[in-house]
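Batch job 17 of 40 flagged for manual review because the log was empty.
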Amino acid sequence: GRAGAADAGADMKQILFLKADGAAQALQDSLLTRFGRSLPAGCLAAAVNVVQPGPEPAPWDLVLELWLDRRSPAAPFALFGLIPAGTRIATCVVEELVEKDAGPARGWPTPGIKMIVPWFGRADLTAGELRRRWDEHVPLANRIHVGVGRYVRNWVEQRSPADAPPYQGIAMQSFATEADLHERLFDTQDDVQVILDDVAEFIAGHVALVVVEYHTRADDAPAA
């Protein structure tokens, strides 16, 4: 994969999972308004991913991606004043690997729909074995997931706080339309089982979040 936090020349990426019980709309409004105007110093780009309602309650309301200048490690702390009191936050420092980048063009909002899948690794495998098997999964995923326009893997290097979910990887797949997600996620029906069998070799469990992405860079933040 193409490694590194590629967006806007950043050299560090953080992913924050946010759950604001009873205040999800306030959290969403605060972050969309803030990032619609400008980004904190040291934050070169951001994506505010708003989790969409589904048949089951989602464990998170919002997923925030931050591409950072490593020389400004305090940049994420500027966010805390924007987040309602009592919001649960799980932070992952990740290595970003861009495996496919054919669109849709990112924007405010990005057209189409996006799926974010944080996963837990099998307890009988070392971190190195998990990473190797995920790397080996990529060609199969790119062949079978024909409706995916952008495929980004995020390998979790650090997580906080201590009781944060032990996510090992965070897969992100972007689709030009909702139909591409629902009808073209798999090349054929037989390939559904092929994917399930392959990921069972290293994944013990996962969460699937369908989101709308709002993406901006420090040099082109839209007016709120």
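Reviewer: the log was empty due to a logging misconfiguration, but the result itself is present. Residues 76 and 185 are 34 Å apart (CA to CA). Unflagging and moving on to job 18.
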